[in-house]
Amino acid sequence: MSSNSNSDSSSKMPIPAEILKAVAQVLRTHCNVTKDIRMDSRLAEDLGLDSVGLLTMAVEVENYFQTVLGEEPENPPRTVLDVVLLIQQRLADRHDAAEPAE
User: Fold this and answer.
1) Largest Cα–Cα distance of the chain, in whole Å?
2) Full-model pTM
3) How far apart are CA 97 and CA 4, in angstroms?
4) What residues contact 7, with CB distance under 8 A and at least 6 apart?
5) Which of 26, 49, 61, 72 could join 53 via S-S bond, C-beta 3.0 to 4.6 A?
6) Average pLDDT for residues 51-59, to the nearest whole number?
């Protein structure tokens, strides 16, 4: 029922390049970012996201990956790399929790 391309994510963890591609798609589609999006791009300074843009990005990324980012309010992601690593960690946590114990 999900519209994203990660319907098989339970069997295969996405690599950072795949996560970056999805984050870039969210930034372009939902946050109207037209600048070049790289791992070292700063969300506010380089991509122009304000508080509404950051919230929109977080919600849309959570929807895309069907996970909760749960970033620390006192240490929010500042770069695209921070977002990619946070998603990667949340997906790994979910994958580990879903694996049967031996």
Assistant:
1) 48
2) 0.82
3) 22
4) none
5) 49
6) 95
